[in-house]
# Entry
Amino acid sequence: MAYAPCVSIVPALLALALLSPGPAQSASAIVWNGPSASARVNVLVAIPPVVNLLENHHPPVLAREPGAITAQQRLVLHTNVRQGACVELWSVAPAASAWVLLPVGGEPVSVQALSNGWRLCTMRPGTHTVLIEHRFGAEAAGPWPLRTSATLL
# Structure
């Protein structure tokens, strides 16, 4: 009895799978003239304006002296605003009506008289140290008669 030659079916199936278009095709496609995959991102970093009075050193009490009372104050102001910032000083005691303010050291500032006090302004960002001499009348003796606030320009 004669047997038919044994032909392996595996190589034939493999060749058929590679040559058929359906199952052997890739799931992705390349498009040459299609839309770009890049994106444009606009980032805006907003830094809020900051003004801080870092130091306000002065005597807590003005001692009674014959004649005018003199006291020094040291202010340290920090700001990130390009135009600078201001410190306003005003009197809470009506007895300090004869009050005179003179910048005596530190960085240059502009000084403006207000109806009830003074305004000292810096013209650039950064940390600024200002030394001030105050002259009060003798009636201002007692607790420190001034209040301070920092403001933006």
Summary: The CA atoms of residues 11 and 129 lie 89 Å apart.
